[in-house]
Amino acid sequence: AQSVSQHNHHVILSEAASLELGCNYSYGGTVNLFWYVQYPGQHLQLLLKYFSGDPLVKGIKGFEAEFIKSKFSFNLRKPSVQWSDTAEYFCAVCGRSSGSARQLTFGSGTQLTVLP
Amino acid sequence: NAGVMQNPRHLVRRRGQEARLRCSPMKGHSHVYWYRQLPEEGLKFMVYLQKENIIDESGMPKERFSAEFPKEGPSILRIQQVVRGDSAAYFCASSPRQRQGETQYFGPGTRLLVL
Q1: Burial B49-72 (b: 16+ CB within 10 A, else e)
Q2: CB contact under 8 A, B101 and A108
Q3: Cβ–Cβ contact A2 with B under 8 A
Q4: Among A85, B9, B23, B78, which is least packed by CB within 10 angstroms?
Q5: For residue range B18-54, what is the model confidence (pLDDT) as tens digits?
């Protein structure tokens, strides 16, 4: 069974600070990886995704993530956060084997609060 | 640009009643997924449907829960005889194609509260 672990439940940063949110997954095969964001009162939106190729993926709003296969990790980064980045961030994995090709497995989420 | 629509956004039920949650996928999407988010937890997969077919229901509780996606109309997640433990946010997502890892687009969710 696949699982996703997000290390930090709540992160508090000041504006302009750098951000790194950890994500590790457990799965015995090839995976697709996603980061979703949920702004207050809004629905989940896709930030970025990794399917194959360059392990450094760039997403919207200046976010990027790096897939490190040897560490089973897909950490999310942003060099300088803004107050508007306050949201909950979810890492998710989708296995590519036929039995699990469809379902996303989510981490428990990281609440990011950016102080102005 | 109509996204995934869910209604109602909030639903209050007493123990033993039935809850019906509706999901209209994005235009052109024929694949629907339901997820449940319990307090302080991540989203958990429940069921994956295509039009008139349940493809994967491995995450559905064995009793009281059912889902359908008819040829016409929205997908319905039905919970019979609700209990307090069913209180959660229920999210629907849709995708357009069968490609591996196709992005799923999420609706705003239905918050179910069982009194």
Answers
A1: beeeeebbbebbeeeebebbbeee
A2: no
A3: no
A4: B9
A5: 999 999 999 989 899 999 998 878 899 999 999 889 9
Which residues from B are below 8 Å from A49, CB to CB?
A: 101, 103
Q: Scanning the structure block, which residue is given the tokens 């989203």?
A: B43
* Amino acid (one-letter) located at B3: G
- The structure tokens listed for B2 are 């109509």
Q: Any idea which residue has 């979810």 for tokens?
A: A90
CA–CA distance, B49 with B69 (Å, rounded to integer): 7
Rounded to whole angstroms, the Cα distance separating A51 from A67 reads 10
Q: Do B31 and A96 touch (CB under 8 A)?
A: no
- Across the interface, of B4, B56, B105, the residue whose CB is closest to A103 is B56
pLDDT tens-digit profile of A71-106? 999 999 999 999 999 999 999 998 766 554 578 999
Residue A2 tokens, joined = 């696949």
Query: A107 contacts in B (CB within 8 Å)?
Result: 42
Please list, in sequence order, all residues whose beta carbon lies within 8 angstroms of the beta carbon of residue A112, skipping any fewer than 6 positions away. Answer: A11, A12, A13, A19, A21, A81, A85, A86, A87, A88, A89
Contact B100, A36 (CB under 8 A): no
